[in-house]
Protein 1
Amino acid sequence: MKAIMMVVIGFIFGLGLIISGMTNPAKVINFLTYGNQWDASLIIVMAVAMLIMMLTWLWVAKKEKPLLSGTFNLSDLKKIDARLIIGSVLFGLGWGLSGICPGPGLVQLVSLKMEFLLFFAAVLGGMWLAKKV
Amino acid sequence: MITEFTPVSAAIGGALIGIACTLLLVLYGKVAGISGIVKSVFAKANSDSRWQLYFILGLLLAGVAVRVFAPSLLEGELQLPPWLIVVAGLLVGAGTTLANGCTSGHGVCGMSRFSTRSWVATCTFMLVAFITANLVG
């Protein structure tokens, strides 16, 4: 049951990424680039998703546990440290260069285009390298 | 490549992303951070990586379904030389691992929770991505 639900949830998430256009690197790059080709779609995607999640967090705050599992599995990290900043700078560099973040990178694997396969392999390599630090 | 501003499909897509994050949190108490999910499945196979595997399966199935039924929705290419694709991928992988999150975990799920870490992370990677895209493009 849980396995099927997880596939469904992943499917909805993936469909959202595709319909929103965020799996097209050009749309992300055009959002990030100032000029007369500016494409503000990404802001709408983020704003709508965040708005829904704000309501969800309000609900979560009143609950002891999730509906189908024993505990909430949430980060309790608070510290703003060098890892957070350096990591975000590196991610920003990679995202600004390519226009792809991990979700769209994963979905675009199904295109079987060499460039996306290469990108995702490099993402895994980067994760492996960072774990060594 | 020129792209159109597409507010309606952006809103529908954003709503689906928000609904998926909501289901994961409300039903199972988990945060939909894609970089963390990818890391747990591919970079370390621990006993708790099963749900992440199914989530990724669903994500890929969405891609397959769209490729079969509406292939034009899944357009997109990476117009970069291969060495730069590798550099960008390494940066995304290493950066999201160090920062413990990306656009989904910090951006959508963290900022809506008013997590200071997520706001700092998202503002940082947005700003750096903005500068990078303008310098390169």
Protein 2
Amino acid sequence: MTTTTATESWFKRTSRSIHIPPVYIFLIVTFLVSGLLDQILSDGQILTNPAIMLNIIVRSVALGIVAVGQTMVIIGASIDLSVAYTISITAVMSSYIMLGDPAKVPIAIPAVFGIGVIIGLANGLIITKLKVNPFIATLGVSLIIKGIINATFSNYTGSVPKSFEYFGYGTIGSIPVSIIIMLFVFLVGWFILARTKFGAHLYGVGGNAEVARLSGVRTDRVVIGAHILCSLTAVLSGLFLVSQMRSGAPWVGPNGLYDLNSIATTVIGGTALSGGKGGVWGTLAGVLIFGILDTTFNQLGVNPYLKMVLRGAIIILAVASYTIRSKKEAA
Amino acid sequence: MANEIDDINTKPAEEKQPTMEVQHISKRFPGVIALDDVSLQFFPGETHAVVGENGAGKSTLMKIMSGAYTPDSGTMYLGGEKVSFSHPQQAQLKGVAIIYQEFNLLPERTVAHNIFLARESSHLGTLNIQKMNKDAVEVLKELGVEKMILPTALVSSLSVAEQQLVEIAKAISFKAKVLIMDEPTAALTYTEVDLLVNLISRLKQKGMSVIFISHRLREVFDIAEKITVLKDGKLIKTVVKKDVTPSDVVYLMVGRTLDHYFPPLGTPEDFGEVVLKVSNASNQILSDINFELRRGEVLGVAGLQGSGRTELAQSLFGVMPFKTGNMELHGKAIAVKNPAKAIKNRMGFVTEDRKSEGLAPRQPIRDNMLLTVRSVQFLFSLILKDGIRKSRNLVPMLGEQVDIRTDSFDREVQFLSGGNQQKVVLAKWLASDADVFFFDEPTRGIDVESKAGIHDMIRALTKRGIAVLMISSELPEIIGMSDRILVMADHRIAGELPARSSEQEIMLMAIGHASDKITELTAAVGEN
């Protein structure tokens, strides 16, 4: 047995306890490469214009908020494919209830969060009590929501009052409100995962459900709780989108690919799809990488189909590099 | 000899009150009686080893004591109070902790998080991580390892021995009175074992009852004060270590009559030329492997757990190829670098772990039987009409050969009994025309009746001129089936014994090698 753990240098121990996810290296590389390409091939706004930088982050808000929820369920070894349509139902229902009337806002917001709780509860109960694989369970719920909203709404429905647009367009000083809200959601997500009992149990359930159960964790409750939180983040994303678009449409969620993108950013951020490992800060980096790529592709005028190809290749590259790295560490 | 050793279970009860006591515990599983009326007492400050062959019932007893199984009959007492557990957590809260061979830890979490999982210090749901780390240090201090293991370290960064310490720390934090360990030394090096021995004596001084299961008699004699021998689910005897020698214990473990029918051994006219010859072969695990396998014989391979039995078959079959030495098949030198090469050379490997290595459980019988044929045939030949017809005829023919009882060959393999599953594995290799078969624990987890069927079938294979190498941890099976017996110890072949050697002869050869080494070791230490 070795005693290196105790005698290790202070620096080594501290650097390990802070544990910077490798995705941040990727984020910096992506930023620098994008900025350089932009500098050479386009007008070089990315590196020089702070407004562009802020714009990148604002464009990442909707994905960022829901990715926090997705990170939680994935840490619990589950997954949520219903977030895209949860975003859609939030967008249409809130603008349908508000109808441009500021007095209706206090009714609409609790109503859509209520819908979020019901969706999350349904996902969690189907997974834990009916023992349906999370992928299938949430895909099924997603189709049910899709059917309901497509039967009821076809395009833009209702509108949000001017005051509600503050969420999407307001600023405090020169910082957009939406960015502050997103960062707050990340902070709350971090706190729940790292500093609460619920978070500790979620890592336990995701790491090894049997170990957690034998230690006395009520595994079903933890999974259901994570799904409710995830749906609530989707609702918040939906509210942000509707405040930007001023009116809700049933296609906002699926068009933004929020289901697959939130999973992709979570995985790029270093959260294991098998559960039990990861955190929201990695996901934040993943979300920003997506934002930078999008903006760069737009700046450079890349063909939209080529954009998809490049994005796909970058996801694979990023995740493969971690696996190879962790294998090297294990060896 | 062993017959005169005092059985302390029959002596008048000791004055001290036992920490834990089991009375008349019985447990049956389909086809086997795992435990038959077992009564035992465990006293505070005492280390008690439970030994026995595979299938003797050791693990079942430990699982009952720790709440993972409920007994069919019998009662348990903890500190004089009658208890029954329906869930391991209940046992844990009452102070009975168990540490399995496979650790129950979360590798990506810290030591403190693991020790206090589901019992985190918190205020209104918010963790008090500082307090958890401090409490973890306190627990680790009780073991005297607080300098070695930091509460903030990730479990995945610890060595196996350190992870075991974390498990023990977790058990202690439940205020365990009884600590059960399943093969605690199996994954440890010699120095780590010494550390564990020290730790156990420390726990004993605190009045804890330590119970452990082990296959390694050396460690049983190092650690335990009392040794209980189980055999075929029955309690044979509990002895005090200082009254006995290892060979006494071996005698108690194995002395038994063959109560199961085995087909007659091969006759000299069955045996043909040498089919497989291995000389001076070795790899990362095995060293110095030399043996010959003849046509028409069953060559049994015996040895303790961890002696390299399974690895021998894996090396021959190319799963873990030999790095040096020579292998000759039918007189021609070959190098089996991977299983595909082995299959091409018409070898068959019936693995120990049917579910994960031998079968695709959700596929029908038909597809499982044709797996090896398909893997070696030209990709399209089976898709062509002729191939389909051929496979259609092949499956019922194979089914008949292995005497599989099923209403349809389209039934998924997962729904078959263990015995029938094993027959499917066998059919798979028959289909590939293999003429050298390696069996690893061919009848593990199979009921008695199907066992006889499998044994008949193995013998029938040899009558058809097939050479069989059969690895088994069940000595009656080795003795009942083998025309010659190889005994493995310490990753080498310790020696060869003739057919119908006794269990004692085999066991002594299997542990003898190891005990020589211990004497050498102790001598060396003495000189220094």
